[in-house]
Amino acid sequence: AKLGIGRALLMTARPQDAREKLAALVAEQPKDAEIVLWLGKVDQDLGKADLAEVSYRKSIELAPERFDGYLALSQLFFNEGKNDEGAIVLK
């Protein structure tokens, strides 16, 4: 339910509120790849690409079998014009 609140805040254009909720949730559940991933998405929306990259990489580390972390990281790189790095993530 708490993850849903963070996602809802992000979708209602309240990314800073979403970040606070998700950061607290990550502190409670640091091994939940989905929560870490959503924190990265919020950081990316806030223009904090370096923090987003850390979260995306952590999400991949926690759940290497899930594709969403790889996709988010590659999109971050593509959005920053780092096309080669983005392509490497997807290989």
Pick out its properties.
91 residues; mainly alpha; 6 helices; 78% helix
Which helices and strands appear, and what pairs or packs with what?
Layout: H1 2-11, H2 15-28, H3 33-45, H4 49-62, H5 68-79, H6 83-90
Helix pairs in contact: 1-2, 2-3, 3-4, 3-5, 4-5, 5-6
How does this model look, in words?
33% of the residues are buried. The model has no long low-confidence stretch (mean pLDDT 89). With 91 residues, the chain is an all-alpha fold. α3 packs parallel to α5 and α4 runs antiparallel to α5.
Portion of residues in beta strands equals under 5%
Order of helical and strand elements = HHHHHH
Task: Return the structural class.
Answer: mainly alpha
Helical segment tally?
6
Question: Averaging pLDDT over every residue, what do you get?
Answer: 89
Q: How many strands, which pairing sense, and closed or not: the largest β-sheet?
A: none
Report the strand count. 0
Q: What Rg is obtained from the alpha carbons, in whole angstroms?
A: 13 Å
Describe what is shown at a glance.
This protein is mainly alpha-helical.
